[in-house]
């Protein structure tokens, strides 16, 4: 299941290849609202880095009510270094 803002899931649904339509579902969801779908894995890709520490913690806390004891949260985020630590080409690829 893919959850995101309504306009984003509408775009994803429209772009999904037909042979995957039985394997992938889409649902509009605001990650500042409690999660209602129980899952084995919650993958947050490029989400928390856009928010303050307080809001990132709020996003993560909203997953907890739906989690099973065996559920996992996977965060895929960009880690950057201070400007000038690596050359510009390396920095570009990091961002």
Helicity, as a percent range: 25-40%
Oligomer: single chain
Computed Rg? 16 Å
Question: What would the average pLDDT be, to the nearest integer?
Answer: 92
Order of helices and strands: EHEEHEH
The largest sheet is: 2 strands, parallel
Strand order of the largest sheet: 1-2
Q: In whole angstroms, how far apart are the ends?
A: 27 Å
User: Which segments are poorly predicted (pLDDT under 50) over 5 or more consecutive residues?
Assistant: none
Shape: globular
Question: What is this structure, in a nutshell?
Answer:
This protein is α/β, with parallel strands linked by helices and 95 residues long. The chain has helices spanning 6-15, 53-61, 88-94; strands at 2-4, 26-28, 41-45, 72-76.
Task: Give a quick set of tags describing it.
single chain, 95 residues, alpha/beta, two-stranded parallel ribbon, 3 helices
Q: How is the secondary structure organized here?
A:
Blueprint: E1 2-4, H1 6-15, E2 26-28, E3 41-45, H2 53-61, E4 72-76, H3 88-94
Parallel strand pairs: 1-2, 3-4
Structure overview:
- Helices cover 27% and strands 17% of the residues.
- The chain is an alpha/beta fold.
- The chain has a two-stranded parallel sheet. A two-stranded parallel sheet has the order 3-4.
- The longest helix has 10 residues, at 6-15.
- The chain is globular, with a radius of gyration of 16 Å.
- The mean pLDDT is 92.
């Amino acid at each position: 299941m893919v959850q995101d803002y309504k306009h984003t899931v509408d775009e994803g649904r429209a772009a999904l290849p037909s042979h995957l339509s039985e394997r992938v579902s889409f649902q509009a969801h605001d990650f500042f609202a409690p999660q209602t779908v129980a899952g084995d894995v919650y993958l947050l890709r490029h989400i928390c880095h856009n928010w303050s520490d307080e809001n990132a913690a709020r996003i993560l806390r909203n997953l907890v009510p739906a989690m099973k004891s065996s559920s996992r949260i996977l965060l895929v985020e960009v880690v950057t270094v201070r400007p000038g630590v690596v050359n510009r080409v390396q920095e570009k690829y990091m961002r």
